[in-house]
């Protein structure tokens, strides 16, 4: 059983913890306060819980305690990850050396973690979300609000499905998204960055999410464009793989800048072809151009793709992921495959030479050097950008 926040607070050690322990009884007596649960506890999940937990302590309309569902793992010393998080207040596997805040309670029981939550923050690698949603049907409050921090897309027979749509449809709740130039380890140590919340219709809900995440070092703004924001966050991982190939081939900054520009253009074209509601202005928010830049300079997708190119494509991404990421998951390779499926199915492969080439390199059909062979594959973007008929 995960200890409650009050149990963790029995022996306060610092002034801040003493104040928290005193505040807890009032907090529990307020049934109208919002309870927040974070579903996921990897690198970004842990940082998201930390950000939210420092705000719930300050915002009177939220319960102090933030539950964080942990996919239980046994550590090399035989201890359970969730127990170690609750004892040390650190996620020793995915975010070591950073205190999460005493009001974060790790809970390995998914049903219990979500049961009383009014606001659900989904932040797991995208490949696990379909299974998690199935487990959550009938287990959450009917009027709960959700937000997805997940980058990825599910490809189904009937077409591509955004993760926010999967959550909304399977659980029957509204779902916003939060994306941006957000390498988790940098936010964990409170370096300044920005993020974008995408919402569908209800601005009040979007403002509530902004309030929950916003910090002087994490500036959040909201735009009414769920699909645009989510596709930016998802597709930039494919561009980051291309940037990693360029680094592995030691092609320099001009080439990398060209890849970023071509990538951004394909991101916009793909998003607008799938959803005519997607706004151009979204690509100038943190979720767009800023996320492209940070992911192509740092980030795990770039790093593993660089190693892949340095080995001439002879070592698989699965092998490199296991060796270089210590349990963290790559998203770009699977997203490239999913995007490729959509392009192939719709007859759009020739319109998206960068996306197409990334998948063909990842799957071993082309060498890494193919990433810059563009002269023969100029996309006919006039078809996408100039003609409403094409949408
Ligand atoms: N890390 C970042 O810098 C960052 C930044 C922005 C967005 N994101 C996005 O956030 C999402 C989550 O990434 P992360 O960095 O928090 O995770 P991570 O890659 O650091 O960790 C993987 C997580 O998956 C869990 N897991 C493993 N097997 C599982 C299973 N079968 N079922 C459910 N969970 C399982 C692990 O316990 C761990 O919590 C991804 O979509 C990612 O693209 C990450």
Automatic annotation (TrEMBL):
It is an enzyme of class 1 (oxidoreductase). SUPFAM superfamilies: 6-phosphogluconate dehydrogenase C-terminal domain-like (SSF48179), NAD(P)-binding Rossmann-fold domains (SSF51735). The active site is at 236 (proton acceptor). Residues 35-200 form the Glycerol-3-phosphate dehydrogenase NAD-dependent N-terminal domain. It catalyses: sn-glycerol 3-phosphate + NAD(+) = dihydroxyacetone phosphate + NADH + H(+). Residues 225-373 form the Glycerol-3-phosphate dehydrogenase NAD-dependent C-terminal domain. This is Glycerol-3-phosphate dehydrogenase [NAD(+)]. It comes from Cinchona calisaya. The lineage of its organism: Eukaryota, Viridiplantae, Streptophyta, Embryophyta, Tracheophyta.
């Amino acid at each position: 059983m995960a200890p409650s926040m009050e149990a963790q607070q029995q022996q306060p050690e610092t002034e801040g913890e003493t104040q928290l322990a005193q505040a807890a009884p009032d907090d529990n007596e307020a049934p109208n306060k919002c309870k927040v649960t974070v579903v996921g506890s990897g690198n970004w999940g842990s940082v998201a819980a930390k950000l939210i937990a420092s705000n719930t302590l300050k915002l009177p309309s939220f319960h102090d305690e933030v539950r964080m569902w942990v996919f239980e793992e046994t550590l090399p010393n035989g201890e359970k990850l969730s127990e170690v998080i609750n004892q040390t207040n650190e996620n020793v596997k995915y975010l070591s050396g950073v205190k999460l805040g005493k009001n974060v309670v790790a809970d390995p029981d998914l049903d219990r973690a979500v049961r009383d939550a009014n606001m659900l923050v989904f932040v797991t690698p995208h490949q696990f979300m379909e299974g998690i949603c199935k487990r959550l049907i009938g287990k959450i409050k009917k009027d709960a609000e959700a937000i997805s921090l997940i980058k990825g897309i599910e490809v189904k027979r009937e077409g591509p499905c955004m993760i926010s749509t999967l959550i909304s449809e399977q659980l029957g709740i509204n779902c916003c998204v939060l994306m941006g130039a957000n390498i988790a380890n940098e936010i964990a140590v409170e370096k300044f960055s920005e993020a974008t919340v995408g919402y569908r219709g209800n601005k009040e809900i979007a403002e509530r999410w902004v309030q929950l995440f916003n910090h002087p070092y994490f500036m959040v703004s909201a735009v009414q464009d769920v699909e645009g924001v989510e596709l930016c966050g998802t597709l930039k991982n494919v561009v980051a793989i291309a940037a990693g190939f360029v680094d592995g081939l030691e092609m320099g900054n001009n080439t990398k800048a060209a890849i970023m520009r071509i990538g951004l253009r394909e991101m916009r074209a793909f998003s607008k072809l799938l959803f005519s509601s997607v706004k151009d202005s979204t690509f100038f928010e943190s979720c767009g151009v800023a996320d492209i830049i940070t992911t192509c300079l740092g980030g795990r997708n770039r790093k593993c793709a660089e190693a892949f190119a340095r080995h001439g494509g002879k070592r698989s991404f699965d092998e490199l992921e296991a060796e270089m990421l210590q349990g963290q998951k790559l998203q770009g390779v699977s997203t490239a495959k999913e995007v490729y499926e959509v392009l192939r199915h719709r007859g759009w492969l020739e319109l998206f030479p960068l996306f197409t080439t990334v998948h063909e390199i990842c799957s071993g059909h082309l060498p890494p050097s193919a990433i810059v062979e563009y002269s023969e594959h100029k996309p006919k973007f006039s078809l996408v950008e100039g003609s409403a008929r094409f949408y």
